[in-house]
Design brief:
Shape: globular
Order of helices and strands: HHEEEEEEEEE
Number of helices: 2
Number of strands: 9
Radius of gyration: 25 Å
Strand content: 35-45%
Helix content: 10-25%
Distance between the termini: 50 Å
């Protein structure tokens, strides 16, 4: 009886080991697939240089004397690439180099003093993750000094609207990157603009 019991236990233990190994392999495979999905989700995001001029403006956002079209407006941008403010905010147009490429671009600016966010919009070229280039609207938002969200001054996000043939995007829509105070991207992927907070909601696969 004792020998039979030992054999039974041994067989059962071997079966458990085989099942455990199979489950472990499936778990590792699932993790790899999820990680791959996260990389795929972030690939179409654009590369936009956050220039030194924008960082300076985030510390003291105000229209210079040379600015044009000074007014009070509640939105900035075009189409889906539009950010809105709860109340009319300071709007102006300015010729300035916002991406440190040595050329001044025509930029629209909107300063939401209530939330402490400086928005800017322009039509320009931008780089793709796949090494190509594309052209279109670029909407950026930088957290200013004393912003309500408590974010580092100069950090923020940028977004572009891609069609299905641009930058390797599988689906048309908004793509964005959040960046830190040094302008380095932190989170990228498909996105939607949060109309209430002025922030961007980036959608990436869960790892």
């Amino acid at each position: 009886m004792k020998r039979t019991t030992r054999r039974t236990i041994g067989v059962g233990f071997a079966v458990l080991c085989i099942v455990a190994m199979a489950c472990s392999k499936q778990s590792d495979q699932a993790k790899q697939e999820q990680a791959g999905g996260a990389q795929t989700a972030s690939q179409p995001a654009p590369k936009v240089k956050v220039g030194s001029t924008l960082k300076v403006k985030a510390k003291a956002p105000a229209a210079p004397d040379t600015a044009k079209q000074k007014s009070q407006q509640s939105s900035i941008g075009k189409g889906q690439l539009t950010a809105s403010t709860a109340q009319p905010a300071s709007f102006w147009t300015e010729e300035t180099d916002v991406d440190d490429d040595g050329t001044a671009e025509t930029n629209d600016f909107l300063y939401d003093a209530q939330n402490g966010i400086l928005f800017t919009y322009r039509e320009d070229d931008f780089a793709c993750q796949n090494g190509g280039t594309a052209s279109g609207g670029i909407l950026e938002a930088l957290y200013a000094d004393g912003n309500k969200a408590g974010k580092p001054v100069g950090s923020g996000w940028y977004a572009v609207n891609l069609n299905a043939t641009q930058c390797g995007a599988k689906n048309a829509g908004l793509y964005s990157c959040k960046f830190d105070a040094d302008g380095n991207p932190t989170t990228c992927g498909a996105a939607t603009i949060n109309k209430q907070t002025g922030d961007i909601d980036v959608v990436v696969a869960q790892q």
